Amino acid sequence: QLQLVESGGGLVQPGGSLRLSCAASGFILDYYAIGWFRQAPGKEREGVSCITSSGGSTNYADSVKGRFTISRDNAKNTVYLQMNSLKPDDTGVYYCTVQGGFCKGWYQGGSWGPGTQVTVSS
């Protein structure tokens, strides 16, 4: 089976940090740009960040620039999202999906894994 499985979510206070992981199985992640999306209760899914297959280019939503950092370790078949200075508005279920190679947009036509819950609350 081709799978992307998210992990690393949890409950943190505002200003805290989390590191999310997106682990691939059933295919080689090296060849694909990967994006992170999130969906808050009552809201539509939105793009958060994207990284190209080589890691040479990244893209971030304006709302997370300067706070989130996307990276990848192709040897481990994993993409990460380091989230710092978390805000309550960052709360939601976070998903990772295959993206277009240049990370110029937010492609949502692929499959979706289970996601990982991030809750930022005092």
Helix-residue proportion? under 10%
Which residues form runs of ≥5 with pLDDT under 50?
none
Q: N-to-C SSE series?
A: EEEEEEEEEE
Side by side, the strands of the main sheet go 2-10-9-4-5-6
Overall morphology: globular
- Kindly provide the radius of gyration, computed on alpha-carbon positions and rounded to a whole number of angstroms: 13 Å
| Major pleated sheet | 6 strands, mixed
Count, helices: 0
Number of strands: 10
Structural class by SSE content: mainly beta
> Approximately what portion of the residues adopt beta-strand conformation?
over 45%
N-end to C-end Cα span: 39 Å
Mean pLDDT: 94
What keywords describe this structure?
single chain, 122 residues, mainly beta, four-stranded antiparallel sheet, globular
Describe the protein's architecture and organization.
With 122 residues, this protein is an all-beta fold. Helix content is 0%, strand content 47%. It is built from no helices and ten strands. The strands form two sheets. Strands 2-10-9-4-5-6 form a six-stranded mixed beta sheet, with no helix packed on it. A four-stranded antiparallel beta sheet has the order 1-3-8-7, with no helix packed on it. A hairpin with a 6-residue loop joins β5 and β6. The N and C termini lie far apart (39 Å). The model has no long low-confidence stretch (mean pLDDT 94).
Short description:
This protein is mainly beta and 122 residues long. It has strands spanning 3-7, 10-12, 18-25, 33-39, 46-51, 58-60, 68-73, 78-83, 92-99, 116-120.
